[in-house]
Write a structure and sequence with these properties.
- The complex is a heterodimer of chains A (about 290) and B (about 180).
- Chain A is α/β, with parallel strands linked by helices.
- Chain A is built from ten helices and eleven strands.
- Chain A has a single domain, classed as Ribokinase (UDP-N-acetylmuramoyl-L-alanine:D-glutamate ligase).
- In chain A, about 40% of the residues lie in helices and about 20% in strands.
- An eleven-stranded mixed sheet of chain A has the order 4-3-2-5-1-6-7-8-9-10-11, with helices on both faces.
- In chain A, α1 runs parallel beside α8, α5 runs parallel beside α7 and α9 crosses α10.
- Chain B folds into two domains: about 90 residues, 2-Layer Sandwich (Alpha-Beta Plaits); about 80 residues, 2-Layer Sandwich (Enolase-like, domain 1), CATH 3.30.390.
- In chain B, a hairpin with a 2-residue loop joins β6 and β7.
- In chain B, the strands form two sheets. A four-stranded antiparallel sheet of chain B has the order 2-3-1-4, covered by helices on one side. A four-stranded antiparallel sheet of chain B has the order 5-6-7-8.
- Chain B is about 40% helix and about 20% strand.
- The chains are: A alpha/beta (about 290), B alpha+beta (about 180).
- At the A-B interface, α3, α4 and α5 of A face α1, β6, β7, β8 and α4 of B.
């Protein structure tokens, strides 16, 4: 089973540890409605749509309210350290969480004590903590955008806020930044870099790129990177290889964007309904809405 | 490399990584360090007073080590008590400075500014903030929900309501957008 770990910007949401369900179009976890605006809820909704299309069970969610003070993230970290050794997940995605190296390292130690080691995907704050901890290579996949790739490539930066200018200047030279991130052990086994051109890479180099169709407005829309991470997580859970899943997810997200016809003020809930047909198009070349086994 | 050499390098890397999420507050004199320590400990922050690394040429011979991600929140606390530091630097790179490069993209009716990992988009005609994207700290979705739909004139500043370095990066984009868009 796929498990997704993250926060929501609503302090009334307590620690939730339960399966995701849909009531109509509303995302529910343990009786709480979660608005899929951006961040982890957007990732969850994309993973739900993709899982449904692929004939998979819906993901399990670990969520908590946190608006940046970190108390919610730390409560969730404590809970994971307690419960993960008794759980069985094939893939765990870590997302919008307060970056904290000590807690990151305790989570990694806990995962090593699980009876079967899950595939590990990290994005957003937990990816920052993974890089800071020097343990990026413990992960199967990171899904950075261009700014975050520059941070991974800068071996001295403890956060994207401190990425050095000469590396940010290289923002258009994604292959060099990927090489630099791997050279300093600051990348997961695979990278899916989200940008004007999406890159799928590993330590040997670039494995694939996806560059069409282009919807310029998607760069401005909050949550478009989160939906890619949600889709790739479901594809990996379906048994596909990581590079194949990454290529399909990048392609499907572009097709979904193209179908949604967004402008820079569009919101992610306008894109999400197009994920099933976009996945079909990315897998089969036709945008039908059938289930892909 | 010998096995011993590899082990030594690995150990050194692990040791340096353990403090990679910490920053240093540099103050003019020891009294200010003590004052900051009292304020931050009273607020429950996990901080430590220590000697500065050799790269730091300014300030006194004590610094306060703090959780770097929460820089914005901690600076706001100190500023509110009249105890602002001279400088704030990451432990892993005392010479590192915040990003000062902005990438600007013109969409015709909208303009987007990126600072580090954060992007802010505004409708040119109305100055209304229409989108916030990027980032990975938990205050980003919170900031987006508070800023989107407001004009640059009346939107809350990320510096005032954000908590993390992502919030700080968004504030840089916000200030740059105001410089670009608003009449002097």
């Amino acid at each position: 089973m796929l498990a997704i770990v993250g926060t929501v910007p609503d302090l009334t949401i307590p620690l939730l540890d339960g399966p995701v369900t849909l009531e109509g179009d509303t995302l529910m976890v343990d009786g709480h409605a979660i608005a899929p605006d951006r961040g982890t809820p957007a990732l969850l909704m994309a993973a739900v749509r993709a899982s449904s299309h692929l004939g998979l069970p819906f993901p399990h969610a670990f969520l908590i309210g946190d608006q940046g003070l970190g108390a919610g993230s730390r409560e969730l970290y404590r809970h994971l350290v307690e419960v993960l050794p008794q759980r069985l997940y094939s893939t765990i995605v870590f997302h919008y969480l307060q970056p904290d190296v000590d807690w990151h390292n305790r989570i990694i130690l806990t995962i090593q004590s699980m009876s079967a080691k899950p595939r590990l995907i990290a994005d957003a704050g937990f990816m920052y903590a993974a890089k800071m901890s020097g343990q990026s290579s413990a992960y199967d996949l990171f899904t950075p955008d261009a700014g975050e790739l520059a941070f991974l490539a800068d071996e001295t930066a403890p956060h994207p806020f401190y990425t050095r200018g000469f590396i940010l200047h290289d923002g258009n030279n994604t292959p060099d930044l990927i090489t630099r991130a791997y050279a300093n052990d600051n990348a997961a086994s695979f990278l899916l870099v989200k940008g004007n051109i999406d890159y799928i890479a590993n330590g040997d180099g670039i494995l694939a790129t996806v560059s069409e169709p282009v919807e310029e407005a998607m760069e401005a829309m909050g949550g478009t990177g989160d939906t890619v991470t949600g889709i790739v997580s479901a594809l990996i859970e379906s048994g596909r290889s990581i590079p194949e899943s990454a290529r399909i997810a990048a392609q499907a997200n572009r097709f979904a964007g193209s179908q949604a016809k967004p402008n820079p003020g569009s919101h992610i809930f306008e894109l999400v309904p197009h994920i099933p047909s976009a996945l079909s198009e990315a897998i089969h070349g036709t945008p039908d809405k059938g289930t892909d086994p | 490399m010998t096995l011993f050499g590899f082990f030594r390098k690995w150990q050194a890397r692990r040791k340096s990584c353990r403090r990679a999420d910490r920053g240093l507050l540099i103050f003019e004199n020891t009294s200010e360090v003590i004052q900051a320590e009292i304020i931050l400990k009273e607020e429950g922050w996990d901080i430590k007073v220590m000697g500065p690394p050799p790269e730091i040429q300014t300030g006194c011979d004590l610094v306060v080590e703090f959780p770097l991600i929460e820089e914005l929140n901690i600076l706001r606390s100190l500023m509110g008590s009249g105890s602002s530091p001279l400088e704030v630097v990451p432990v892993t790179g005392p010479l590192l400075t915040p990003v000062d490069l902005f990438q600007i993209k013109d969409f015709g009716e909208h303009i987007m500014i990126r600072a580090a990992n954060m992007k802010l988009t505004v409708e040119k005609r109305t100055y209304i903030i229409v989108n916030v994207s990027g980032g990975g700290c938990p205050d980003v979705p919170f900031l987006a929900s508070r800023m989107i739909g407001h004009s640059l004139f009346d939107a809350p500043s990320p510096r005032e309501i954000g908590h993390t370095l992502c919030g700080y990066a968004l504030d840089l984009a916000f200030e740059e957008m105001k410089r670009k868009c608003l009449p002097l």
